Amino acid sequence: MNKPKKAYVRIFAALLLVCIAAQFATSCADTSTGKAASETSASVTGDGSESTDRLYPDVPVVDFDGYIFRALYWYVSGWDWRRSKDIVAEEGSGDVIQDAVYKRNLTISEKYNIKFELDEVDEGSLNNRLRQNIMAGDDVYTIVCQKQTSVADLITHGDLLNIFSIPYVDLDKPWWDKNSINDYSIAGRLYLVASDITINDKDGTAAMAFNKQAAIDHNLPNLYDMVRAGTWTVENFYNTYKDVASDLNGDGKMDENDFWGVIGGRDVLTSFFSGAGARIVDKDDNDTPYISVMSDRNAAILERLYYLTTETNVFYHHHITGIGDAEFQDLFENGHGLYHWIRFDSISDMRASETDFGVLPIPKWEETQDRYYSIVSIYISSLTSVPISTQDVERTGILLEALAAESKYTLIPAYYEVALKTKYARDDESAEMLDIIINNRIYDLGEMLNPGGLRDFVLNLSMQKTFTFTSNYKKLEKASVKALDKLLDMIDDLPQ
Q1: β-strand 35-37 against 61-63: which pairing, if any?
Q2: HSE (side-chain half, CA atoms, 13 Å) at 117
C-alpha cells in the first residue's frame, strides 16, 4: 500500500450569516442578490401533513426576481427509467414522487421568486456542454448532476466550485449526506455532494433481494434475524445458498432455465467489497487520498469474493453470460434464484412481480464489523455539483440550502416512507432493513476517480478465468499511484 504523497491542511473560516430567517423575522437589508422578504414557508411532510419538529435552514428569504434555477442533468440513451425525476415535475401527475417534487418546487419558487428548469444531456456530451458555457462566460446552470463515472474529468479540469466555499451551505445540517462529504472530500475540498435534493443517488444504493418462498422451501434461518443479530456475513450468506442451485430441466447444464443460489449483476463483486468496509482509495488523517486496495485485508477479501462470484453452478453472473441487469432481474422475478443483487431502483421495478421477495443489506465481511455498508453505485447515479462559472455564489448557496431543507420534508418522506417502504416493500421487515441500508450508504473515492484504471480492474476481476489480482495489480500499481498523484496535483492547483 503506497503512502500519501503530500498532506494538505485546509482550514475554512466560518461564514457569517447576513441575516437569519425566523418565524417572526421581518426583512433583511438589500443585498447584491435582491430584496429580502420575511420567512413564510409552510411546514409540511411528504404526505402533506404539518410537521411540528421541522428544522429550518439558516438563510435569508430573498426575492430573486424570476431567476431560473437550471439543472444540467445526465442521461444515457435507452435508460429512460433512470432519467431525472427529482428536479422538475408537472402538477397533478398522481405519482407520489412527482407530486412531492412539484410541491417542493412550488414552495421554493413562491418564497424566492424563481423558476426551475432542466436540461438533460447525454452523459458523453455533458462535460463539453458545461465547458463551452464556462469558456463563454455564461452563467447558465445553477447545478450540475453528471453520472459519477464521468465527473472526475470535471473536477480535475477545474469546472466545479469547491462546495466548502459556498456561503449559506451548511453541510452539518441533516439534509446533506455526511457520508458523501466524508468519503468524497479531497484534501479539504468537496466537488460533489449527495443531499435530499435528489433521489437519483438513492436509487443507486446496493442491496440484496431474496425469494421468500424459496427460503422457506430450503429451510433457511430467518434472514432478517441474522441481520439484526449482526451475523449476516459473507460466509453465512454463502452457507445459505451454496446447496440450493438446481438443474430444473435436467439438461446437464446450468443456464437461464434453472434455479440459482445467487443472480448477480456486473458490479456485484465491488458492492460486496465495499460491504466489507473496504475501499479502492482511502484517505489519511489529512484528508489526502491514497490507494488502499492492496492492503492484506482487502486482498484477502477480493480473493474470497472472486471464488464466490465465479462458482459457475451456484452464482449466475457475467462470467457465464453477458446479459444486462434488466435480464438478471427478470430471471429473479420469474423464480429462478434464491438471492438477487439489486439497487434501490430495482425495488420499484419489481413491485408487480409475482415472486414474493424481501430486502436485505449487503452482508458484512465478519461479525465484528461495526455495521453494514451499502455502496452507492457510480454507474447509474449522480450527486450535485456547482459550476465554476457561477457569478452569484451567495444566491446559489441560499437556494441550495433552502431547496435541500425543503426536500427533507417533502421529497424524501415521499421517496423513503411512501414509495420504498410502503408502496414497494413487501413486508415490515423489509422496511426495517431499508432503514439499515439507508443509514449506512457509503462512497468509494477510488471508484469515482478511477486512478490508472484501477476501478475497472477490480470491477472485471470476476470475469477472469483465474484469480490473478495480486500479480496483475503489481503491473498496475505504479501507473495507479502516478495517476492518483497527478490528480491530486491538478486539484491542488485549483482555486480554493
Answers
A1: antiparallel
A2: 11
CA distance 459 to 391: 40
In angstroms, the CA 472 to CA 457 distance is 9
Distance CA 4, CA 341 (A): 34
CA atoms within 13 A on the CB side of 394: 14
Domains of the chain: 35-201+379-423 (3.40.190.10), 206-375+440-476 (3.40.190.10)
Tens digits of per-residue pLDDT, 346-390?
A: 888 888 888 999 999 999 999 999 999 999 999 999 999 999 999
User: How far is residue 133 CA from its own chain's centroid?
Assistant: 27
Distance CA 477, CA 491 (A): 21
Q: How far apart are the first and last CA of the chain?
A: 29
What is the C-alpha separation between 155 and 377, in angstroms, rounded?
19
Does the CA dihedral 27-33-39-40 come out positive or negative? positive
Q: Distance between CA 234 and CA 272 in Å, rounded?
A: 8
Task: For residue 73, give the nearest of 59, 87, 62 by alpha carbon.
Answer: 87
Residues 82, 27: Cα–Cα separation, whole Å: 41
Q: Which DSSP helix (H) or strand (E) runs through 117?
A: strand 114-122
Which neighbouring-strand residues pair with 289?
283
**Residue 222 CB partners (closer than 8 Å, separation 6+):** none
Give the Cα-Cα-Cα angle 344, 346, 347 (nearest 5 degrees). Answer: 70
Local confidence band at 307 (pLDDT 50, 70, 90 cut-offs): very high
What is the CB-side half-sphere exposure of residue 79 using CA atoms within 13 A? 20
pTM: 0.87
Instruction: Give which of 129, 134, 133 is closest to 150, Cα–Cα.
Output: 129
* pLDDT digit string, tens, across residues 394-412: 999 999 999 999 999 999 9
pLDDT in tens, 22-65: 332 333 333 333 334 333 333 344 344 444 589 999 999 999 99
- Rounded average pLDDT over 290-307: 93
User: For residue 316, what are the β-bridge partners?
Assistant: 263
Edge-first strand listing for the sheet containing 206-211: 315-316, 260-263, 337-343, 206-211, 357-360
Closest CA to 399 of 29, 86, 173, 64: 64
What's residue 51's pLDDT? 47
Contact 315, 272 (CB under 8 A): no
Distance separating alpha carbons of residues 78 and 371, to the nearest angstrom: 36
Q: Which three cell numbers stand for residue 247?
A: 438443474
Provide the 3-class DSSP secondary structure of residue 474: helix
| pLDDT at residue 245 is higher than 50 | yes
DSSP 340-352: EEEEHHHHHHTTT
